[in-house]
Specification:
29% helix; three-stranded antiparallel beta sheet; alpha+beta; 348 residues; 9 helices
């Protein structure tokens, strides 16, 4: 489910996610205008928290972004009974990730080379080249520009452990559609989410377990997913309807924003900015120190398909020294050194 992330405050993260949402929709349309790998069904956010209830009441009504719908209208659009006012996102998307990814690969044609079944154990820099090594210390490849986009496993690399990425396990549950669930016309978001039936399967999700990296299916997490759904749709499924599931591990940051840009030299930052807590003027400090030709793109959390397209565009602009497609405050909110800087300001 690709839908906007709303905020009642004028903040950098609100600006980023709104821009990213519309940019992702544009990219999907360009990639597959027949909508074979995605469908612009719209989506609904049920009032599952005080924050969301406040958004439904106070967020500006916009035809393209978000509209508050009464229960009767929401029920008609959703195909199932909804008892409360919801936020409706008319341009939201129900997508099939593997098909979208395959479309991206096909779109690149010969400009992209993929090496499968290969694990990078380490990398090092010399003579203006990054060399990637396997577990046998053999060179896999070398390049002048290296982008680490390995989600939470970016923590595996010594140069990047300081970035502040946390692994969070998530399990989706796959159900055989029932007579009631087959009526669902669009994605429904609450504490979890429910997607419309597709290929005789229906997905609900997802669990959220910090610092857990196991990818084994859990019956308990199936029950949690089902219980979350039953708070809103009591008789839609039973445990007997579960047919399968899938586990992945999100890469989550403390402020729920991606980490994007040139990789900082941690020790250089510590030497230059350790006394930020003293409040000296900014012009008393040297410019940041970065690893030559090393960039990061991680921390997309649970909204990766919303944030990934614009993040890639920002990173390309940084690498190629082109004008950025985001404001300076968004650029700083995505900065890979921001958690280091915050720790120095707090003298941690």
């Amino acid at each position: 489910m690709l839908m906007p992330r709303l905020s009642l405050q004028d903040t950098a993260d609100a600006e980023f996610y709104t821009s990213a949402y519309f940019y992702a929709l544009r990219c999907l349309q360009q990639l597959d205008n027949q909508q074979k790998s995605w469908q612009q069904t719209g989506a609904m956010q049920l009032p599952s928290s005080a924050r969301i209830k406040k958004q439904i009441l106070e967020y500006p009504q916009t035809a393209a972004l978000a509209q508050a719908l009464d229960a009767q209208t929401a029920s008609r659009l959703a195909g199932v009974e909804i008892s409360q006012t919801v936020h409706y996102y008319p341009l939201a998307v129900n997508l099939q990730p593997l098909r979208v990814l395959q479309n991206l690969i096909d779109d690149m044609v010969d400009a992209l080379s993929i090496r499968y079944e290969t694990q990078v154990e380490s990398f090092s820099h010399s003579n203006n080249q990054w060399r990637l090594f396997n577990k046998h210390a053999e060179i896999i490849t070398q390049t002048d520009i290296l982008i680490c986009a390995s989600a939470w496993q970016i923590n595996h690399f010594e140069l990047l452990k300081h970035l502040g990425v946390q692994p969070v396990r998530g399990q989706i549950s796959i159900f055989n559609p029932t007579q009631q669930s087959s009526k669902v016309k669009l994605p429904l978001s609450y504490d979890g989410y429910l997607l419309p039936a597709l290929h005789n399967q229906q997905v609900i999700g997802a669990s959220f377990i910090p610092d857990e990296i196991s990818t084994e299916l859990s019956k308990q997490e199936h029950r949690v997913n089902l219980n979350d759904l039953q708070q809103w749709f009591a008789n839609m499924f039973s445990e007997d309807d579960i047919s399968d599931g899938r586990v992945s591990v999100r890469a989550v940051t403390p402020d729920r924003m991606p980490i994007l840009g040139a990789a900082p030299v941690e020790e250089g930052y510590r030497q230059a900015y350790a006394d930020l807590h003293k409040g000296k003027p900014a012009d008393k400090y040297a410019e940041g120190n970065y690893q030559a030709g090393l960039y990061v793109n991680t921390g997309h959390g649970a909204r990766g398909f919303t944030s990934a397209f614009l993040s890639a565009e920002v990173l390309a602009a940084v690498i190629c020294d082109e004008p950025l497609p985001v404001s300076n405050r968004v650029r700083y909110a995505l900065h890979p050194a921001r958690f280091l800087i915050r720790s120095f300001k707090k003298k941690q």
